[in-house]
Amino acid sequence: MHQRQWNGKLYQGKHEALVPVELWERVQGVMDGRNASKHCRMTHDFAFSGLIACARCGCSVVGEIKRHKCIYYHCTGYADKCRGEPASCRRKYVREEVLEQQFTAMLGRLRFDDEVLEWVREALHASDADERREHQEAIARLQAEHARLGERISAMYVDKLDGKITGAFFEEMSGKWREEQRRLQRDIERHEEAEQSYMDEGLRILEIARNAQALFERQPAREKRRLLKIVLSKCTWEDGEVVATFRQPFDILAETTAIAARAATAGQATSAKNEIWLGW
């Protein structure tokens, strides 16, 4: 027999309980513990979790809090990915501060002075003029094709009125041509949007690149991760070292900065400017 509470009153049950009270309480305790541990795991936002893969096995590198304060990263080391030796990956840890220092150094490769900034802006303006011309030529071609299809539809409508073609044939062909006109219009709008945004996008990229290191150093974990996803790709980790490649066009900017630095050391500013222009 068991008792049951309903609307604040206790009733005597007439059936045997399906689950013993002791077992029920133990199960609830386990479930509460799981929920509590899930909640604890979700309270900390690890800056680099989900960004890095283990270079040896390809598994994700994730963050973990140890000794209640220090953050370490390690390979998850799933057995189905680690060539039969998952433990060797899991045993290696790296502190978050070490990873942060390495990412900060990478972003420092994008930092450039005012002279290089002016050179890149000049290149961007020249490229923008070429880009605008190409978009305008494409828009003109698309508009001409759109108008030609409109003339076809009008001429065919006259033929239908004159009885030269059937109404069904007119509907079939005009429907195809109107669909083609809608596709052309979408292409025209895409070119118009690209024409307007090209220069703005280029300047935003310059701003991100030039300030990436400073932004990274003072941002919270979520923003650090977001910035790294914008700038870097293919991040891997092995024996405490992070290797990553810059996404386009940040790879060009990194190379530009390296060229300018080498030229400044050798006293060849003009040569550096020419190389930067060729890169863009």
Question: Care to describe what's here?
Answer:
This protein is of the alpha+beta class and 280 residues long. The chain has a domain at 52-103. The chain has eight helices and eight strands. The chain has helices at 21-43, 86-90, 96-108, 114-161, 167-218, 221-231, 250-266, 269-279; strands spanning 3-6, 9-12, 52-54, 61-66, 70-75, 93-95, 232-238, 241-246. The strands form three sheets. The chain has a three-stranded mixed β-sheet with strand order 3-7-8. Strands 4-5-6 form a three-stranded antiparallel β-sheet. Strands 1-2 form a two-stranded antiparallel sheet. β1 (3-6) and β2 (9-12) form a beta hairpin. α3 crosses α5 (167-218), α4 (114-161) runs antiparallel to α5 and α5 packs across α6 (221-231). The longest helix has 52 residues, at 167-218. The protein is elongated and about 90 Å long.
Chain-wise SSE layout:
Layout (H helix, E strand, L loop, with lengths): L2 E4 L2 E4 L8 H23 L8 E3 L6 E6 L3 E6 L10 H5 L2 E3 H13 L5 H48 L5 H52 L2 H11 E7 L2 E6 L3 H17 L2 H11 L1
Parallel strand pairs: 3-7
Antiparallel strand pairs: 1-2, 4-5, 5-6, 7-8
